[in-house]
Amino acid sequence: MQFAVPPRRSPLPIARSSRMPIYRRKQFKSIAVLAFAIFSLLFIVHHIYSLGSPSLTAAVPSGVVIVTLLDRQRLSESYVKKIVTNREDYAKRHGKAFLSHLIYIRVESNRRTRTGYTNFFASVADYADAIGDAPRTWAIAPAVRHAMAKYPQSAYFFHLSPHSLIMNPTKSLNSHILEKNKLEELVMKDASIVPPDSIIKTFAHQNEKDIEFIITQDTEDLNPGSFILKSGEFARFFLDMWFDPLYRSYNFAKAETHGLDHILQWHPTVLARTALVPQRSISSYSKDSLRASPEGTYKDGDLVIQFRGCEEVEGRDCERELEPYYKIWLGIPQRD
């Protein structure tokens, strides 16, 4: 008896086993490539949109941090409260006002920043171990460095002496100083670093894009009571240099002020990134301040008034000098 045996070579099954898997693999490959392309396109569109979206940038830390160093062992609670109130009012005004101004949103080194404002109130006592036996005023450098560590995505750090008041809260640092055209207008070129006739001068040709440190001067020295420092590698390098133990060991007559004078005169790397601006632009002196000049004394409308030396000179009282200007800032009418 014979049985029907299927042929050893059946063309139909072989055709299905060889062609169909290849076809399916090609389909899967095409689908995978298309899905990857769509995903990539969506990622790029989302990334571009997020850079310009105020709802997303609003979550980024403030663009300007106001650093105020308080010596709470020497300042009364009422005095500290006035300084804090003054700074917080300014930050609140401009922290909200600029959220909708996308023109000020910038992208630097792939970081998103906005021009919101916030405060960092430091205490001299927190840096006592680092300062050692040097004068307490050296705490400015580690205080600003501390602020940079706390707000690493912020664009600028504005150090302001505790013996000063922001008198014109309508002026933002952006419109008053930091905008390109404004800064180029204010920069003092070919000017003596240490007045009146230091042979070391600011560069005659300096581009706005190279400026990362903005400061002013009085009739004798640079004025570290008010300066603006742009966040970045230079800022960290500069602060570390300024606070170097070697400079603190020199026993400069004016401590950190003379240390700063020295650095800018003998280190062109720092000078090349520094802009000197007129005193009244960021730190007008009160009429009783040390080294007050007609060009640098406070006038109505100036951004800041500083009571330079009020804590140093016998017979002066910082709180008494601040009080009438604080009332003006509050809008309280003054008697003649």
TrEMBL record:
Q: Which domain of life is it from?
A: Eukaryota
Record bears the keyword Glycosyltransferase: yes
* TM regions (residue ranges): 28-49
Q: Which GO terms describe its cellular component?
A: mannan polymerase complex
Q: Does the keyword Glycosyltransferase apply?
A: yes
GO terms assigned for molecular function: alpha-1,6-mannosyltransferase activity
One Pfam family, short name: Glyco_transf_34
Q: Which UniProt keywords apply?
A: Glycosyltransferase, Membrane, Transferase, Transmembrane, Transmembrane helix
Which biological processes are named by the entry's GO terms?
protein N-linked glycosylation
Name the protein family: Belongs to the glycosyltransferase 34 family.
Under the heading PANTHER family, the entry gives:
ALPHA-1,6-MANNOSYLTRANSFERASE MNN11-RELATED (PTHR31306:SF10)
This protein's name: Uncharacterized protein
Q: Which organism is it from?
A: Penicillium salamii
Lineage summary: Eukaryota, Fungi, Dikarya, Ascomycota, Pezizomycotina
